Amino acid sequence: MEGNFIKINGDNAEENAFARRVEEGIRGQFARRLFTKFAKAIVTYRLLEEGDRVAVCISGGKDSWLMAKLFQELKRHNKFPFELVFLVMDPGYSPANRRMIEDNARLLDVPVTIFESDIFQNVSEIEKSPCYICARMRRGHLYSKAKELGCNKIALGHHYDDVIETILMGMLYGGQMQTMMPRVDSANFEGMRLIRPMYLIRERDIMAWRDFYGLKFLQCACRFTEQNADINRENTSKRLKVKRIIAELKKDDPEIEQNIFKSAENVNLSTVIAYKDKMGEKHYYYDE
User: Fold this and answer.
1) The pLDDT of residue 78
2) Distance between CA 104 and CA 125 in Å, rounded?
3) pLDDT of residue 15
4) Given 77, 102, 146, 160, which residue has the most CB atoms within 10 angstroms?
């Protein structure tokens, strides 16, 4: 332990053998669906640069664990020098959930650095939008610890399906056209950048990888939402509705998901009534 950090490495021969099989799968049968798209996102959106030190943020779910293994594979290719820190924040997990994260770190041979916070305890006292506040607080803690560890970037495990669902949710429930960006410079932590290298990977392929190896990961591990089912349903119902809308539309048009994704990069400002610039100032079509 170093201060409030705990480092966990896989040191069991049998577990390491399992990790090697997972890595062989990433290079083999899952390469096209996972690693190729991971590498493509990094190149297309310029997510990595020489000399980067990236905090790979692991929440305990399927997406972030796969991201960790993909980063390990990328590091083995060693096209240019960069460093990785596999960072886990414990915001107040139950002992069982904390143990699952530690067990998976050993099983997958990912040398995680764990630090603790009291986010769940603080959020339990918030009545309005607790999940939104929790997400913001978690992001801030991750930025802070990553910077403390000498990182200039944090990597999150959002995938292709998250992106298209966010586009539709913004339109249907937020009255705005926006997307989940592949990289974002932090407004509050100077010199820090958030990247999403899973941007082009489909959720169904992540699930196929997980199920093929019989892996068990955390779902939502928040004690607050577990104890307040109504709040949890309220926060997830909109995204579930959007998932169902996309699935229904796909029955008639198999290209619907791709079209939603492309809509965020094919914006024609001459056909948009109004838009906001980087400073948040609104411009109407007749301004020019």
Assistant:
1) 83
2) 31
3) 67
4) 146
pLDDT for residue 211 is more than 80? yes
Global model pTM greater than 0.90: no
Transcribe 226-242 into DSSP letters.
HH-HHHHHHHHHHHHHH
Q: At what angle do helices 130-148 and 229-252 cross, to 10 degrees?
A: 90
Q: In the structure, what pLDDT confidence band is assigned to residue 11 with cuts at 50, 70 and 90?
A: low
What residue ranges do the domains of the chain occupy? 5-266
Q: Report the CATH number of the 5-266 domain.
A: 3.40.50.620
| Helix (H/G/I), strand (E/B), else coil: 193 | strand
Termini Cα distance of the chain: 60
Nearest to 86 by CA among 99, 100, 105: 105
Q: In angstroms, rounded to a whole number, what is the distance separating the alpha carbons of residues 239 and 243? A: 6
Pairwise CA distance, residues 229 & 219, whole Å: 14
Mean pLDDT of 97-125: 84
Burial of 87 (0-12, 13-18, 19+ CB in 10 A): buried
